[in-house]
Amino acid sequence: MKLHNLYTYAFLKAPTESLKLPVGMANPLLLITSGDISAVVEPEVCLDTLQNDDERLIQSVVCHDRVICELFQQTTILPLRFGTSFLEAENLLTHLCSHAQKYQEKIEELEEKGEYLLKCIPLKLEESVVSSESRGRQYFLAKKQHYEAQQDFYTLQGSEWQNLVNLINQSYPSTRIITAPGTESRIYLLVNFQEETLLIEQVLHWQKACPRWQLQLGQVSPPYHFT
């Protein structure tokens, strides 16, 4: 029986005898192997049909993430983006064969590691209360002082951000930084599972060094940003 429309969740190292395959969107998941690399696929998934149905599309995105998380809990995987699909098994096998070395090296790089999200939220300077009794020169002086304090605050905040990035790069060379000036910036770190406690301690240290930022460390997740 020929397999078509192979929705592909992840690549991983073969053999995979002990792997428990999760439940897919609608059909049982399969393993297709070429040499030392296997692909976790779900056959007969028509992406065009999903894209024309918003509710099914959302459910499929949630399913995609769930499957990858369940696989990640069992073994090292190279998670693929939502929407990765191959028309036939032959296409997938050809792809695995031609990219085998690259995928093998990437999977080895990700072994025993997970992705951690560090949210970096810039704090705002509290508005100074200008007395309603202030008049004329006093009022404008108070406003001027607040403006200057605000400028100093944001200058220091910018310096703290650069310092934070430098500190993180010193300890964790594998990072992905997504900046959003004025709002929440995100730093993704690739960290060995055994070093999670050290990472938590590092975040506390970074927080002390950057008091004008609120740092929030998330739970470990599959290495989406390091593929």
UniProtKB/TrEMBL annotation:
Keywords: Gas vesicle
Compartments, as annotated in UniProt: Gas vesicle
GO biological process: gas vesicle organization
Major place of residence: other
Cell division is among the record's keywords: no
Similarity-based family: Belongs to the gas vesicle GvpF/GvpL family.
Domain of life the protein comes from: Bacteria
Full protein name: Gas vesicle protein
GO cellular component assignments: gas vesicle
InterPro entries, sorted: GvpL/GvpF
Signal peptide per UniProt: none
